[in-house]
Design brief:
By secondary structure, this protein is an alpha/beta fold. The protein folds into two domains: 1-88 and 164-231, P-loop containing nucleotide triphosphate hydrolases (Rossmann fold); 99-163, no CATH class. Helices cover 33% and strands 26% of the residues. It contains seven helices and ten strands. The protein has helices at residues 48-55, 78-87, 104-114, 119-132, 148-159, 178-194, 206-209, and strands at 10-19, 22-32, 37-41, 63-68, 71-72, 89-92, 166-170, 198-202, 214-219, 222-226. The strands form two sheets. It has a six-stranded mixed β-sheet with strand order 6-7-8-3-9-10. A four-stranded antiparallel β-sheet has the order 2-1-4-5, with helices on one face. The longest helix has 17 residues, at 178-194. Pfam families: ABC_tran. This is ABC transporter ATP-binding protein. It comes from Hyphococcus lacteus. Residues 10-231 form the ABC transporter domain. Belongs to the ABC transporter superfamily.
């Protein structure tokens, strides 16, 4: 097969998002290839989160089309969009949003159980992912017994529990100190690459962006390529 003809896992086609007269992003054309990691840069309020929410079918674009695995999504009903989010997309946010009454293992197994997986299988996969994130000795700890970095690594494992094709991450290390941020980002990139995922990761940290395959920046509501820089 000609690699140039391979359908991208994610494609945004002439996407715009407006709130009344307020333009958040416009004329966004973007493709994410299988196995590619892309950094999304931009100051707070530039539209990074909105763009990720559109890509993840959490918001609907005012204009344009979002294609996931080659499938246009604008005319899908809520159940179809939910199915794609559950089975094709993984989400990581700045705050971990772990359930405090569950262990790390329980938090990571939960999305699989909701999807109908057997408990034994779900827990085995959760244990595998947590071990890959360096948390093999912490699986029975509740979030309150974990450090901030461990909580975020647990959240990353949970995002990958249903074996998605695409990881969307919104400032996944933005709430961590620089040293912990490096540890978490190391684990995230290693897991993404080991699992063969594609990832679109919003960050304000140029150092972290430099470690991804490509960098894009939102400037004047539009998405433009950026160069890796020396820090």
């Amino acid at each position: 097969m000609n690699k140039n003809n391979v359908v991208p896992v994610l494609r945004l086609e002439n996407v715009a998002r407006h709130y009344g007269e307020l333009v958040i992003v416009e004329e966004i054309d973007f493709t994410l290839k299988a196995g590619e990691t892309v950094a999304l840069l931009g100051p707070s309020g530039s539209g990074k989160s909105s763009l990720l929410h559109i890509a993840g079918l959490l918001e609907t674009a005012s204009v344009g089309e979002v294609h996931i695995l080659g499938r246009p999504t604008s005319k899908l009903n809520d159940a179809e969009r939910t199915h794609i989010r559950r089975n094709t997309l993984g989400f990581v946010y700045q705050f971990h949003h772990l359930l405090p009454e569950f262990t790390a293992l329980g938090n990571v197994a939960l999305p699989q159980l909701i999807a109908g997986e057997k408990r034994k299988t779900a827990e085995a996969e959760a244990r595998r992912l947590l071990t890959l994130m360096g948390l093999g000795e912490r699986v029975e700890h509740q979030p309150g017994q974990l450090s901030g970095g461990e909580q975020q690594r647990t959240a990353i494992a949970r995002a990958l529990a249903n074996n998605p094709n695409i990881l969307l991450a919104d400032e996944p290390t933005g709430n961590l100190d620089p040293k912990t941020s490096d540890v978490v980002f190391d684990a995230l990139l290693k897991l993404v690459r080991n699992e063969g995922l594609s990832a679109l990761i919003a960050t304000h940290d140029q150092r972290l962006a430099n470690r991804m395959d490509r960098i894009l920046v939102i400037r004047d509501q539009r998405l433009v390529p950026a160069e890796k820089t020396e820090i």
